Amino acid sequence: MTESFRFLGMPQKQGPSLLTKSVSIYFGSGLFAVDPNARKVLDGFAQTLGVFQNAYVQVEGNTDNVGARPANVTLSKQRAEAVVSYLVERHRLDRGRFVAVGNGPDRPVADNRTAEGRELNRRTDFKIIKNAAAAAIAGPGEAPAADPKGSEPTISGDIDRRLIQSVIRQHVAAYRACYTAALAKLPNLSGKVMLRFTIDAKGMVTESAIASSTMANPAVENCLALVARRMKFPPSPGAPIHINYPLLFQPETP
Question: Fewer CB within 10 Å, N- or C-terminus of the chain?
Answer without folding.
Answer: C
